[in-house]
């Protein structure tokens, strides 16, 4: 663990090296996990039109319910990083154990929200067959929340103590197994019964239950966690840690819901124009999503590294981690942006063929959207890294408010003006999204500079001797 106090080329390069070492396994892990969803969606596409139509309905409800939980789990990483930097192993154990209790408690509203999804579906105007398939699929998926929640707590613990390579190893084992088991249960292969779309829910439940069990046993006996006693306080609620996880994590979850919500709204608005623009929008989103994962991983590394500095009462280290990871992100985006802007046709060939109907129109809009996505990624890189720095300072409520204003206010207002009033249509929607991200990035940079120089760092760390 490095305790920086002055700026030099050596400290910058050392921090960059550490951050890259931590970020690369996280990036790989996130991409591997994305491949699982892509593979399962491809399988479901072979089950028929109604089943394919029901799938996005079900996954949208699952994503919405799950986003709030993710925020709570990321608060575990922040508190673990604080205690790790403060050399308070008992504090790490308390944060994780209370995270386990909170995750199990939070499964009740999360699953309940998913169980009443069929009521929401009936208001969507879909036909009864699609609604029935989606409702049952959501109900079956809801049981996955229990093992995934337990797994997420352990994953955030590992990220908090800097063991991101182990997170990658778990993903590399879990994802191929999930794909194979889902394939077998969806199509009835290798002597297993055929469940159709519902086999995906059963497969995920089985795999995540096994992953949670084996990772729990591994951590119980391994050197990674024995000194932290993360399973030693499961029989008691330590209210200081318990409520701190909610206070820090709930706004993070709400922020994710806002981000997912505005993406869904923009996609719905895109459908008002033409199927060609909507198709181009989906293609551009695919490339944006892959690159966004990189920025997301860097943002979490910023939370972790800046969190260590908070625990060390090292104000300079917080700034260094935030600025260095932002620069790393911009350098990576320089490479990505080069390919997006110089070789867009080659990239489009991955998704569409020149022989497809309206290829020229779809490709025209896709190239424009992909070009604009480079700007979005630049602002998102700044936004996510400075948000990560603020999260290390336990400042999560203000970024939530900024996201609400930026995405639900600025984006929607500009979307109406540009897309509908000035008739820029889909291009106007993408420009509006870029403006919202730029607005959030600017405000968060100003907030970070103010907070990092103002806050008493010693009061941010929840120490075990405060119990």
Kindly list the characteristics that best describe this protein.
467 residues, mainly alpha, 15 helices, globular
Biggest sheet details: none
Number of strands: 0
Oligomer: single chain
Distance between the termini: 26 Å
β-strand percent reads under 5%
The number of helical elements comes to 15
The structural class is mainly alpha
Order of helices and strands: HHHHHHHHHHHHHHH
Tell me about this structure.
The chain has 467 residues and is mainly α. It has helices spanning 9-44, 49-85, 89-115, 117-122, 128-142, 145-160, 164-187, 198-221, 239-270, 275-311, 315-342, 344-348, 359-392, 397-421, 425-454. The chain is 81% helix and 0% strand. It is globular. The protein starts with 8 loop residues before the first helix and ends in a 13-residue tail after the last helix. The mean pLDDT is 88.
What would you say about this model in short?
This protein is an all-alpha fold and 467 residues long.
Topology:
Layout: H1 9-44, H2 49-85, H3 89-115, H4 117-122, H5 128-142, H6 145-160, H7 164-187, H8 198-221, H9 239-270, H10 275-311, H11 315-342, H12 344-348, H13 359-392, H14 397-421, H15 425-454
Helix pairs in contact: 1-7, 1-10, 1-11, 2-3, 2-5, 2-6, 2-9, 2-10, 3-5, 3-6, 3-9, 5-8, 6-8, 7-8, 9-14, 10-11, 10-13, 11-13, 13-15, 14-15
